[in-house]
């Protein structure tokens, strides 16, 4: 495994992990969700599945999150996550291991980023795995409404403790995030995608209904798996094992 730092379009450092396979079967990019990082267990498992199937595999931390890349989480939004994905792929095109078509896999906010990329650059994509993905800004804001979000509306700040990095508090300017995400909705266009698509979500995920809605809008080779007892981010060992088994079997069919 190799780690490197590249610059995005805003001249901020992005931390990138490359697991290169010589004479590889393909290339895959794996992206974390909002406030996540490339070493989260579910992100690592997706990367392992691709690598073990002889794919050169790329993971990265977006800017404005709690990983190794530059930025301030206060400024995080869907647009800068998506632009970082574009910038990582653009950089990859200059590397010796780059090849097309490639696979994209991601969680949550990363999920809609890879869908948006596939809609824009469909000729580059072999397969897509948007896990517990955002499908529309409006639907996501409705799905995650709570006492917390009511407080965020009042104060202008979204403040949460990280479940993946103990002791880390995530603080974001809520109104800019909200205004940004409301620009996005992939449902009107996803029926255009003609590549294999894997959806996995938790039985207790707030986004479960939107995953079913996305599945219904897809007009391609598609799978939807619902993991019993799992929430939006899959954390328990038994659930993670089921998650990886599903992922492994899907990659075998590509």
Automatic annotation (TrEMBL):
Positions of the Serine aminopeptidase S33 domain: 24-140
Stated name of the protein: Serine aminopeptidase S33 domain-containing protein
Pfam families: Hydrolase_4
InterPro entries assigned: AB_hydrolase_fold, Hydrolase_4
Source organism per UniProt: Candidatus Komeilibacteria bacterium CG11_big_fil_rev_8_21_14_0_20_36_20
